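sorry to bug you again but im stuck and you know this stuff better than me. what follows is a protein written twice so to speak, once as letters and once as structure tokens for the fold. id like you to explain what the token line says about the fold, in plain words if possible. anything you notice is useful, everything is just below.
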Amino acid sequence: MIKFPELINIPLAEGVDKIMDWLLLHLDGFFDAIGFIILKVVMAFEDVFLYIPWFVLVLLIGLAGWKLVRSLKMGIVFMILMMIIGLFGYWELAMQTLALVIASVVFALLIGLPMGIHMARNDRTQKILKPMLDGMQTMPSFVYLIPALMFFGMGKVPAMFATIIYAVPPVIRLTNVGIRTVDVEAVEAAKAFGATSRQILLDVQLPLAKPSIMVGINQTTMMALAMIVIGSMIGAKGLGMEVLLAIGRIEVGRGFEAGISIVFLAIIIDRITFSFSEKKTKTEKK
């Protein structure tokens, strides 16, 4: 009586395996097409970042810190952080990581923004998606690597696929919240002036929900960066691979350099993306 009865068993694993086998058998061409598109996009970003001279990119990031974060000091800090990454010898790896993150975020936004808008405008969709998003955000990140490997094998594509799925929930949630919390009076006023549903969305709801949506984009970007590092386990190159190699060889210094480079990238990306939501708030206060 102490042990749990072994006769009672829910064959969830078997059911999931059967679904995966069916998908691989019948949708192989579809996943090949998806993988081709993902690879082309990430390689395009990588080529751009590696083509731009390092000093030009450092200046552009400093300019972004000055103009977007509205702080000359922050722009200088960004430039120093990027210089340190280069001095560690990780410039090319950092550009590969940045390309993977930005490409993942682009795909996550293409999926997440329309879903968030539909979720905000349909209560039934919200009831269905909310528990799914809860599950996606609480699921251990390593679990996403398993179906990615099965669908796409090793390399950048499965790492990006897992990253997109892992990073998309915040932008869906906060787009939904932002639109739903728009002042009802503003929407009613637009209706009174004869605005269509599309006009209300584009001209009233989305502009007023912009701070919330931008916070969602910020969170999606940071989750993408975290997952890209884990994606190095299945063949994604970049700084994450350096951390993984350092762990395997017990090279503490190498792991620390790669890890701190990831932290520097995270600081820069976080402050730049978050500045868009802050910019709107500051304008409203004025």
Notes: The first helix runs from residue 12 to 26. The domain at 15-51+88-285 is CATH 1.10.3720.10 (MetI-like fold).
